[in-house]
Amino acid sequence: MMAISTRCLLVAIALAGPFGAQAATPPAPVTPPAVGQLIERNVAARGGLDAWRRIRTMAWSGRLEAASAEPASMRFVLEQARPNRTRFAIEAMGQPGVRVFDGAHGWTQRPSRGIRPDVVPFTPQELRFAQDAEVIDGPLIDFAAHGSRVTLGGLEDVHGRQAWRIDVTRPSGTREAVWIDAETFLDVRYDRVSYRPAGGAVTVSLYYQDYRSYEGVKVPAVIDIGGNGDTPAGRMVIEQVVLNPQLDERAFAEPGTLRRRQAADPGSHPPSVVAQ
Question: Which domains does the chain have, with CATH numbers?
Answer without folding.
Answer: 29-142+212-264 (2.50.20)
